Amino acid sequence: MRTIYVIGIGAGDPELLTxxxxxxxxxxxxxxxxxxxxxxxxxxxxxxxxxxxxAPNLPIVTVEDPPRDRNPENYRAEVRRWHAExxxxxxxxxxxxxxxxxxxxxxxxxxxxxxxxxIIERMQRHEGLxxxxxxxxxxxxxxxxxxxxxxxLNRIGExxxxxxxxxxxxxxxxxxxxxVVMLDGGAxxxxxxxHNTYMWWGAYLGTEHQVLREGYICDIGxxxxxxxxxxxxxxxxxxxxxxxRELEEDAP
Length: 252
Ligand SMILES: C[S@@+](CC[C@H](N)C(=O)[O-])C[C@H]1O[C@@H](n2cnc3c(N)ncnc32)[C@H](O)[C@@H]1O
What we know:
Blueprint (H helix, E strand, L loop, with lengths): L1 E7 L10 H9 L2 E6 L5 H14 L5 E5 L10 H23 L3 E6 L9 H11 L4 E6 L4 H9 L11 E4 H4 L4 H4 L1 E5 L14 E7 L7 E6 H19 L4 E7 L6
Parallel strand pairs: 1-4, 1-5, 2-3, 2-4, 6-7
Antiparallel strand pairs: 7-10, 8-9, 8-10
Helix pairs in contact: 3-4
This protein binds S-adenosylmethionine (SAM).
């Protein structure tokens, strides 16, 4: 039976793969990757660079991401249809290009805001792809953010809330006390900060374009929003992540 390796490749730095991930890359028949088109091509190139650093001869088969209606009448039905089509195309590529094993490279860690495991489950259930799955953890963008800012994710005994920019607006004041925000297409930090909201922000973490900023939202919020727009225009895409924390004292 085929083995599908779901390999967390870290969030941008080829040196942050685990030994287990490297060994899996050196063992599999092929990597299958989704090509999400234009703006995300840089990301695909980064993935290829990471594979090449550790397994120079490993073939990478790319499957074009099927088109998706961004303004459907029935959002859920459209997402279901899109996921089903993705699963069909990927299962087809796996059958064509691998006999024993195939790898999916997951940005960061497969457990955090990623649909690869869901797609594989769908391929097994609905596309009849017989396979066993091995998941290899990776370093997440959250860990890169804290490492690059040399800081702790939580204060003593305090909870950590991880959310998306879309859900930040609904977060309770308690959750916002110490809150990691991902998947922000805009500048979610500008919504509802207090005078004491401090932000540690990072974009393109682990890559040559890495940018870091930190400060009270009331001091740096607007500047970082402008910077984000400039960076997106310059590179054609951006990935950023931030920790918001309510500070009682003056020092972060
Ligand atoms: C679809 S989620 C994937 C998260 C990934 N599985 C992980 O473990 O980090 C993508 C989001 O992760 C964050 N992210 C991932 N890589 C990043 C990087 N190198 N720099 C900044 N943020 C990053 C951004 O918030 C981005 O919108």
